[in-house]
Amino acid sequence: MLLISFIITMSVKTSLSVLVDTKAVLTCPPVLWPSVLVVTWEIVLRDKPPCFGAYRRDTNQTTRGNCTDKRITWASRPDENPALQVDPVAITHDGIYTCQIVTNDGNFYHEYHLQVLVPPEVTLVQTEKGTAVCKAAAGKPAAQISWTPEGDCVTEQDPYWGDGTVTVQSTCRWGGRHVLNVSCSVSHLAGNKSLSIELDKGVRTLGFPGSDLLIILCVKFSLLLVILVFVGFIHFQRTNDCRSRK
Fold first, then answer.
1. DSSP tag of 27
2. pLDDT band per the 50, 70, 90 thresholds, residue 222
3. Using alpha carbons only, what angle is made at residue 127 by residues 141 and 196, rounded to the nearest 5 degrees?
4. pLDDT on residue 244
5. What's the pLDDT score for residue 171?
6. pLDDT over 70 (residue 41)
7. Half-sphere exposure of 160 (CA within 13 A, CB side)
8. In contact, 200 and 178? CB cutoff 8 Å
9. Quick count: other Cβ atoms within 10 Å of Cβ 8?
10. How far apart are CA 62 and CA 64, in angstroms?
11. Do you find a cis peptide bond into 82, omega within 30 degrees of 0?
């Protein structure tokens, strides 16, 4: 009798986006636990050498190789649940996380492409008459900015090469148009935000034209002259009264 055995290999790939400073739990492929021989997590982070963590069921032992980040650990006891957790998630945790389960029936893989999201800090200011600047600072990935109403807009990106975040700045002008209120909408995978501003609010010229200022000065000088003449007249009258009594 000819016995033929089949080795099963199954692989699943998942793209996962996680907000920075939260907890991420990555699970392994669902298999019958009694058939499990070895569970291995391989982690490849950006600009770092690969590391791994493994669990052998027959000896109930775990091992780690080249993994120094203490925020990446087993979610619980690996003999009960071989899931991996990252807590808290940092920008540096972008990378590929692969769970491999070796069983009597074959090998099972679940690969995660983990992308860390960083919400940008959004600001909206007026820089000059009829011009506003909307900025989405230090977001990951880069945010998108749109305006209501539309104007003559220029958008620029300034990447922070060290941590992968990007600052997006959009400058919009509505010169020659009667526009009172504008709003900028920032679209981002971590959440959307919209800010509004009233153009030219509170912008006033505190002063007077040259001709008006001259008139005001002349009026003040004339009033001062009248007062001085009146005071001098009173003083002269009192002096004369004193002399006549003598």
1. P
2. low
3. 60
4. 56
5. 97
6. yes
7. 17
8. no
9. 10
10. 7
11. no
| CA atoms in the 13 A half-sphere facing the CB of 107 | 7
Q: Measure the CA–CA gap between 116 and 91, rounded to whole angstroms.
A: 6
Please name the amino acid found at residue 202.
G
* Residues near 130 by beta carbon (within 8 Å), at least 6 away in sequence: 173, 174, 175, 176, 177, 179, 199, 200
Sign of CA dihedral 78, 82, 88, 92: positive
For residue 12, give the amino acid letter: V
**Cα–Cα distance measured from residue 64 to residue 73, given in angstroms and rounded to the nearest whole number:** 10
* CA proximity to 42, closest of 107, 111, 90, 92: 111
pLDDT value of residue 214: 47
CA angle 221, 225, 227 (to 5 degrees): 120
pLDDT score for 75: 95
- Those residues whose C-beta lies under 8 Å from the C-beta of residue 193, and which sit 6 or more positions away, are 122, 185, 186
Report, as an integer, the average pLDDT of 15-24.
97
Ordered DSSP codes for 109-160: EEEEEEEEEBPPEEEEEEEETTEEEEEEEEEBS--EEEEES--EEEEEEEE-
Grade residue 156 by pLDDT with cuts at 50, 70 and 90: very high
pLDDT value at position 205? 31
